[in-house]
Design a protein that fits this description.
Length: 401
């Protein structure tokens, strides 16, 4: 089955999906909804009496897009049979409430850091909702991400504790040596507010691999309004979109919610894809951003820049990464998590070594995989196969002959 909205490059390089539920969910993740998008939704649902709505709900859960799908089906006037309609509405409502809670928490955190004189940036989360969709209620994010200078981590952590947050990763009882060891191999520390379990990742760099995207704490910032009269500091727009795309690419574009963010930007005009890819080229992020643009072309029919088409034709690594991303996104089309599919997370993690030609990048990836034990959150469900294999090799190497 074809999704019906693809560019020639994406159609030629990626196989079509096989099931009506995946086609419907993909069509519903498009933004904004105009005639072609609504037609795609109605076409995917045209045989609604035979549509497996349990599979639809499983895919919605897997890709974290309950708000988008509920909105799209409502606008397209699609009748969802009981009890699935009530289940979807409840999940979309819960996600919307969660997002509004995050708006409140993000603003309170940012104002406290401002009052303490700590320069910071709000990454992704509710700022992505405003950048991509200009509204709340259709996007879901698990946690809040803040970026500060490494030297300001202790002061920022004390500010968060004053608001009631508790550090959980590493735990508050960790020794100073344990914290230093953690910071040597990670990008953030994790806090949770016990009142409502709000999770905050306090970053001192953008990615685990410091060679993926340079730190920008000392660079320019802009302020983005969360609602009238209330704004927070964020990365400049072009840098913020590069970060959003690099984050999606690092996770293999495995969740449709990240492609929905990017697709909303690219749908504004064909020039957006050209500008974004030019910025990615300059930042040496073309192998992360390019596959996202190609997947958006496949799902949403957005433009593919000519420069990207040329790069795709001549860059074998980009083609591999794009293929891995499509497999990570589609999976078995039944909603199974990437980590639960055979070699799913392994392919994605090994793909990290294809991103850059810089040996320093490869070394950082190797060191992180060596120490990675996973957090058990939405991105990692325990140690990756790569980490386990490398860890076993390291143990063998340490044994006396």
């Amino acid at each position: 089955m074809t999704l019906g909205i693809s560019q020639s490059l994406a159609a030629a390089s990626l196989p079509d999906v096989a099931t009506a539920p995946f086609a419907l969910v993909a069509a519903c993740s498009a933004w904004p909804l105009h005639g072609p998008q609504l037609a795609a939704i109605r076409a995917a649902e045209s045989d609604g009496s035979l549509l497996d709505w349990e599979q639809v709900l499983a895919l919605i859960e897997r890709h974290r897009i309950a708000g988008l799908v509920h909105h799209a089906l409502t606008v397209a006037d699609i009748a969802i049979p009981a009890p699935f309609g009530a289940i979807l509405q409840a999940r979309a409502t819960a996600d919307g409430v969660h997002e509004l809670k995050q708006v409140h928490r993000t603003l309170a955190l940012s104002r406290a850091l401002d009052a303490a004189g700590i320069r910071h940036f709000v990454l992704k989360g509710v700022t992505s909702a405003m950048m991509a969709f200009g509204r709340y209620g259709v996007r879901y994010s698990v946690d809040i991400d803040l970026l500060v200078d490494r030297t300001a981590i202790d002061a920022a952590a004390d500010t968060m504790r004053a608001l009631g947050y508790v550090r959980v990763d590493p735990p508050e009882l960790a020794t100073a040596a344990d914290v230093r060891a953690w910071m040597a191999h990670h990008k953030d520390v994790v806090f949770v507010h016990p009142d409502d379990e709000t999770v905050v990742e306090l970053h001192w760099r953008l990615f685990q691999n410091s060679y993926l995207m340079p730190n920008t704490v000392e660079g320019p910032l802009t302020r983005l309004a969360l609602f009238p009269g209330a704004d927070v500091p964020t990365l400049p727009e072009e840098t913020a979109w590069l970060y959003i795309c690099a984050h999606g690419g690092e996770h293999g574009w495995a969740r449709m919610k990240r492609l929905a963010d990017l697709g909303a930007l690219l749908a504004r005009s064909s020039g957006e894809a050209h500008r974004l890819y030019a910025h990615a080229h300059a930042a040496r992020l073309k192998r992360l951003v390019g596959p996202g643009i190609i997947l958006c072309a496949k799902l949403y029919g957005t433009a593919v820049p000519e420069r990207l088409e040329r790069d795709f034709a001549h860059d074998r690594r980009m083609r591999w990464i794009t293929s891995i991303a499509w497999q990570s996104l589609v999976g078995d089309e039944s909603g199974t998590e990437l980590e639960a599919t055979k070699l799913g997370a392994t392919r994605k993690n090994l793909g990290h070594y294809l991103i850059s030609n810089d040996p320093r990048h490869w070394w950082r990836e190797f060191v992180f995989d060596l120490h990675d034990r996973g957090r058990g959150d939405e991105e990692t469900a325990g140690p990756s196969r790569v980490a386990r294999v490398i860890g076993r090799l390291a143990c063998l190497a340490r044994k006396e002959p």
